[in-house]
Design brief:
single chain, TIM Barrel, alpha/beta, globular
């Protein structure tokens, strides 16, 4: 199929025509391209921009949205989330994943990075919806003498990779995952690192999310969680490290030198009272940074534009400097850097040859008029609710209130049914 976006405002490029052929952007320019088109899309009062990449999420935790509030991370996990997760079923994860994916599509997300359980169910939801994702089975280990080869968590992570990596024409990638330093032993870290490096797989981790986690590691080993993972070979693989709130200067250097991606989760970290990533300092040092919502149990939405807003404002307030991290920098975290963190260099920008992951925001809304600079509008004025169009790999998933691949009313009904019976 050949689609033309009529000359409209393209983020960072001005008014351009954009042509999509199949799943690829084939023209961006000032003049209307020659030829016939299967469809010409009206872009009046719209902002055309790349789809967003949510690089840390636990999407099936839509099931626990609002279930544990006004609590620090440790209490939240141990008294609310972990007991609730013990009751998870494959159906619950499938329905909750579909529900989360619908919310992300509605809010302009093209791809998400996910760490959770019952991952085959999330994979199925990705396949049905048309979205992209990097999913992983969260691995924990506590026995220093563990036989890694027989551990069911490690086996499930490998099997997920073997069965689903690059499924759905490459829309789905499978990563390995280690929950955190405080939930794993060195032997498991080394095994996961070796497997990932030998298969060119990425590894997802939680890293220095809270001060207590960070300090406990230093007390136990004499070095930080980042150094723990370095000593056990993890940074020989492609690493996506969520949170990174309490990193030292040396930790940042390790991330920079390894090429790892640190994922900023401002809404979740602020809500749980964990602090927030020292974003400006990390960017100054040349650390790769992307953006994520974290799970909807700790955010509570899957709205990347909201997290762009919080990422910008929190840093300005902390550094007492409104100009150190600019709106363009924040958008880059959510687009280009997000795609690179997922090993998707073919995505993340509106350029010829790149994948057609394109969204449009409505500029004709009360909160977006006037729009003097589109970057400022995206980061400071807009919200996910302003997204009126979402195309992933050239397939339209959402347009003007209509989901093209999902029966959202059915999904909502099934979600309500799961919730109604979950805590019986």
């Amino acid at each position: 199929m050949k689609i033309l976006f009529e000359k409209g405002e393209v983020l960072g490029l001005g008014r351009k025509f954009v042509e999509v052929t199949g799943r690829t952007i084939t023209y961006v320019g000032d003049e209307r391209p020659d030829g016939c088109f299967d469809r010409v899309i009206d872009t009046k009062n719209k902002l055309i921009m790349p789809g967003l990449f949510n690089t840390h999420c636990h999407c099936a935790m839509t099931l626990f949205r609002g279930y544990g509030e006004d609590m620090p991370l440790g209490d939240w996990l141990n008294t609310r989330i972990f007991p609730a997760e013990d009751k998870l079923t494959d159906r619950a994860v499938y329905v909750a994943s579909l529900y989360a994916i619908a919310e992300m599509i509605r809010n302009g997300t093209a791809s998400f990075t996910d760490m959770y359980y019952f991952c085959e169910e999330t994979a199925k939801a990705v396949g049905e919806s048309g979205i992209k994702a990097n999913i992983s089975r969260s691995i924990v280990s506590f026995d220093e003498d563990i036989d890694v080869t027989s551990d069911y968590r490690f086996r499930e992570g490998r099997e997920l990779f073997e069965n689903f990596h690059n499924a759905f024409d490459g829309r789905l990638k499978v990563d390995m995952a280690l929950h955190a330093e405080y939930t794993n032993v060195g032997k498991m870290v080394r095994a996961v690192a070796d497997y990932a490096a030998s298969h060119n797989a990425s590894v997802q981790i939680h890293l220095s999310e809270t001060k207590s986690e960070h300090d406990a590691c230093v007390a136990k080993y004499g070095y930080t969680p980042t150094e723990f993972f370095r000593r056990n070979g993890l940074f020989e693989a492609n690493v996506t490290a969520a949170h990174c709130v309490w990193l030292t200067e040396e930790d940042m250097d390790i991330l920079k030198e390894s090429g790892a991606y640190a994922v900023h989760n401002p809404a979740s970290n602020l809500k749980l009272g964990s602090g927030f990533m020292p974003l400006a300092r990390m960017l100054e040092k040349g650390v790769n940074v992307s953006l994520g919502t974290d799970g909807p149990a700790s955010n509570n939405t899957l709205d990347m534009i909201k997290d762009m807003y919080l990422a910008s404002l929190a840093q300005k307030g902390h550094d007492l400097d409104p100009a150190k991290v600019k709106a363009q920098d924040i958008v880059k975290l959510a687009t280009v850097n997000g795609a690179l963190s997922q090993q998707r260099p073919e995505s993340g920008s509106i350029e010829v040859g790149k994948r057609a992951d394109i969204i449009m925001l409505d500029l004709d809304t009360l909160n977006n008029i006037p729009s003097y600079d589109p970057y400022y509008t995206v980061v400071y004025s807009a919200s996910g609710r302003d997204c009126v169009f979402n195309m992933v790999d050239g397939q339209i998933l959402y347009e003007n209130g209509e989901f093209k691949t999902l029966d959202v009313e059915k999904i909502k009904s099934e979600m309500k049914d799961v919730v109604a019976h979950y805590f019986d």
